[in-house]
Structures are given as structure tokens and as C-alpha cells.
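Comment thread on ticket #2218

A.B. wrote:
> Attaching the input chain for the structure job we discussed in standup.
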Amino acid sequence: MSNYTKTTNFATKDSLPSGNAAKIVKGTEIDTEFNNIATAVATKADAAGAALTGTTTFETISDGTISITAFVDEDNMASNSATLLPTQQSVKAYVDASVFSGVADGSISTAKLADDAVTAAKLASNAVVTASIVDDNVTQAKIADDAVGADQLAASAVVTASIVDDNVTQAKIADDAVGADQLAASAVVTASIVDDAVTSAKIADDAITSALIADDAVVAAAIADNAVDIARLNVSDGSSGQVLTTNGSGVLSFATVGGAYNSWLVKTSAYTAVAGDQIIVNSSSATTITLPASASAGNSVTVKATGGGTVTIGRNSQKINSTAADGTLSSGSGTQLVFVDATIGFLQI
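C.D. wrote:
> Ran it. Output below, let me know if you need it in another format.
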């Protein structure tokens, strides 16, 4: 392989003076230069896609960063060179001797393992023991369905937070497991109590107040004999010998039994009469006797004024002699008033 060598320097001819024989370019000179070029081209490889035959020698091969100066067949790579290119045989021999058959037991440390190098296929059966698992690294995703049975649960492992809401059914609660301590405040509602289960023994003394008794709940059979005394009636106590009466509108009172007329009463101050009253007003001052607010036909009130004072008969929303006005009695006068109806009211007899 030869390089192109220029034989004639044609540029120097330009500086020669006219008439100088050397200034003339000869055909033989041109022919010589073309021959030199042809020889050089014929012995050179193409820059791209060159096909070389035979043995090719080189001084240096470079990619711009790494330069290779020679090939080397060195099974132990002892030269440790950055410019020598090993053969396939020497690379295989070195790897076989140094990486595989030359690895001593226990010599592959964590640092020798590449990230993600140990796959499931590399793990032997039962290779992952408790000590190999980092604390808190067994997540839900790592536990197979139905893998946690009764044997896997430690004592007291199932706490409140582990139980799904509404998943503790009757079947899960042992007999007699729910005691007073397990019942929350106000946990026992009406629907939880079996009919007829609340006996007398379950009711504390003084627990039943009036607010807990429904209207019309206390029937005759529930009242002990002789248990209803005067304090239990909605009425003020009367005098000795009087009896309990009603005005027909639900109002109870005690009155003296005497047919259509009550015993004579002596009053020295204002008084509201009841049907059948016979009243002597013995007062030197003006005094008001008020008629009953509710009267029935035939009810009578008799009033006699004495002592010097005037007595006003208060009509109490009733008419007197068909007039909506109070009446008066001078001292020494008397009258009997009998209720007729709403139009006439009390009629003076």
C-alpha cells in the first residue's frame, strides 16, 4: 500500500520567465502524475464500506475516545491495558476462571448483587425466613386470601378497629358474654326487651314517677283498698258532717247535706255562695256576696243583711231578674234568689 507522491511541482513553473524551457508543461509530466495517483488509489481502502482481504495491519484504531493499538490473547488479563483488545477465547477463559468456578462459598456479599437481581426464580423453597423480612414490610397485598386463620392470630390481636362495622352477629357472641360493663349507656331500648320481662324485681324503689304513667293507666285493680284519701282528691277538705258533691262540670266540693238548702251561714266579709246557701251578713261595713258562677235551674241562694252595712249581690256573669247588673240589699232587708235559665238568670222571689 503506497501513498501518492507528487513528481512535478507545477506551481513553480508559474514564476519562471517566459522563454524558459522549464516553464513548459510536458505531457510526460502530466502522465507521470496520473500514474502516481492511480498507483496510490489502487492500493488504498475506501473510507466507507471498504472490503479488505488478506491480513490488515494497523498502528491505532480509535473511535475518538478509546484508542486500540493491538490485539492480545491473554487468558488472565494480567496486562490490565486500556489500549489492548482481547480475543473472544481469552475473555471466555478469564470469565470461566474468575467469575464462576473461582467464586468461593460465602464470597458474594450484598454489594455484589445488582438491584433487582434476585427474582422469585432465584429463591429456593422456604428460603425467606422471618429474619429476612424487614419489620412492617408484610402489607395486605402480600397476604393471600384466607391465609390468616385462628392459629395465625396472636392473643388479643383482634381489636375494635380491626372489626368491620355491623359484623359482630349474635352467633359471634358467647352466652353470658354481655354483662353490665359491656352495655353502653342507654343501650337497652324498648325493642331489646322481651315482652313481660320487666318484673317488679327489675324496677327500683321510687323509679315510677307520674311522668312514666300513661293517662288512664291506673285502673281500679291497681289501687289498694282504702288507698285514696282526702289528699289524693282534687278538692279542699270540708267541715265535719259535710259530703263530697259536684257541680256537674267536674268540680268537686264538700257541702252540708240538707236537701235543697244548706245550713245557715253567718258571714262578716265577702263570700262566694254555692247552690242552697242561706247566708246572714252581719257587718257594719259594705260587703259583697257573689252568686255561683255555674248554676242549674232551681238552685237557690238566700241572703239577709243585718249589722248596718249594705250588701252587694255580685251576679258573677249571671243575670239577676233578666238584667246584667249587680243587686243591693240595705241592712234589715233580705231576699231569696232562684236560678231559672241563662235569659232570666237568678230571679228574686
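A.B. wrote:
> Thanks. Noting for the ticket: The longest helix spans residues 27-42.
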